[in-house]
Structure to design on (408 residues):
């Protein structure tokens, strides 16, 4: 076999073509090559019960090309859509923002009394706080699909109606017996402190062209987003949000409130031997119709590579790339969100989640991002201890379902 992969030298080494559209065309070409290679693998499996190792190797390399090109597309799309925070120059008349810039650059504190904090830190200007939250939404996959609520207290309490009031039909003159009242529960979402500590030299801060708000937002966002995503998926709820995979998991037939239901593949650590795509169909239709219309799949890159190979009964690939550059791929027509903190396929793991995360998961942001300037601990660098308080947890246990790679 002499097949070559012409796409690897472009997306794989970071030397992407200029512009998003050429890269998107390259991505679609790689996907067509992937489908051809996978069709060949399936034909070999059907003909002789095993695939040629060269075919498997080519398929793996094409999968890596698709992942790399997709990541580059998402990064370029994000950069193209990101406006400058302040354009490199302060807005006239915004005294607090000017004072905050002076505090960050030189440690001047006399003008910052309105934002002072008991521990010596200061609230960032509203524009910078908004930019931090906006960028977190763009690069944190779970935050992007969940409900986000801003609160002013350390704990957000949400009442939840588990059952509505009982109702019934009666004849015109029949007696009206008293009905049962609705059942209400309360969910608590405490916020925990998330921090980052970027460092800069005095020479960098003395540069008059430095947009301090944008610099802090850039420095802390990647760190915040990575920590948040891990917590939203698997956090244990102690000094961090509680992830949806940390909730009690039960077979869908035994589902009850405060638990997440799952569908089992029937094979430990693997897809079913026959008709592997059927379990995904079962998972989709486990979710009620009211949730299904806004649902998304969530999985990591390795699991996505596995589902790319699956077809339906008519021979159509279940995984499809976005129709335009920057659009999410779809699985069975539903958006597919890539979250690297989801577990890999393994014995009794749940690497695939499906649900309406807008209704199923709640992210709680306490208002305010604080910055404490520390020029002493790491001289000649100036440290900026930046904190925000974030909470999170499942708010509707019927809105998210899992696929378990196990026998029961």
């Amino acid at each position: 076999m002499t097949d070559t992969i012409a796409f690897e030298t472009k997306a794989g080494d970071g030397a992407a073509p200029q512009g998003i559209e050429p890269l998107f065309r390259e991505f679609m070409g790689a996907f067509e090559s992937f489908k051809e290679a996978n069709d060949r693998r399936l034909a070999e499996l059907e003909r002789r019960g095993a695939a040629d190792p060269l075919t498997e190797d080519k398929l793996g390399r094409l999968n890596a090309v698709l992942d790399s090109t997709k990541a580059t597309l998402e990064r370029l799309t994000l950069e193209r859509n990101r406006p400058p925070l302040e354009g490199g120059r302060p807005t006239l008349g915004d005294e607090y923002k000017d004072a905050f810039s002076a505090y960050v650059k030189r440690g001047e504190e006399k003008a910052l009394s309105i934002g002072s904090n008991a521990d010596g830190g200061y609230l960032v200007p509203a524009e910078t706080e908004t930019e931090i939250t906006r960028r977190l939404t763009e690069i944190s996959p779970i935050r992007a699909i969940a409900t986000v609520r801003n609160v002013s207290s350390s704990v957000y309490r949400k009442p939840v109606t588990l059952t509505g009031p009982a109702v019934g039909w009666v004849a015109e003159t029949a007696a009206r017996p008293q009905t049962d009242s609705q059942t209400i529960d309360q969910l608590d979402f405490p916020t925990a402190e998330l921090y980052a500590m970027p460092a800069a030299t005095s020479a960098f801060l003395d540069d008059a062209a430095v947009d301090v708000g944008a610099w802090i937002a850039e420095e802390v966002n990647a760190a915040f987003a990575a920590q948040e995503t891990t917590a939203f998926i698997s956090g244990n709820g102690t000094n961090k949000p509680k992830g949806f995979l940390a909730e009690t998991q039960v077979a869908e037939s035994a589902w009850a409130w405060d638990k997440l239901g799952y569908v089992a593949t029937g094979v430990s650590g693997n897809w079913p031997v026959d008709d592997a795509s059927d379990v995904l169909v079962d998972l989709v239709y486990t979710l009620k119709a009211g949730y299904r219309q806004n649902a998304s799949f969530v999985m990591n890159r390795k699991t996505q590579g596995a589902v790319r190979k699956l077809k339906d009964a008519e021979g159509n690939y279940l995984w499809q790339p976005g129709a335009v550059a920057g659009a999410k791929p779809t699985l069975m027509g539903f958006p597919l969100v890539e979250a690297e903190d989801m577990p890999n396929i393994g014995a009794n793991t749940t690497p695939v989640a499906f649900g309406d995360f807008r209704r199923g998961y709640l992210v709680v942001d306490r208002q305010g991002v604080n910055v404490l300037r520390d020029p002493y601990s790491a001289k000649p660098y100036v440290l900026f201890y930046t904190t925000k308080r974030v909470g999170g947890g499942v708010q509707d246990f019927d809105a998210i379902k899992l696929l378990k790679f196990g026998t029961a």
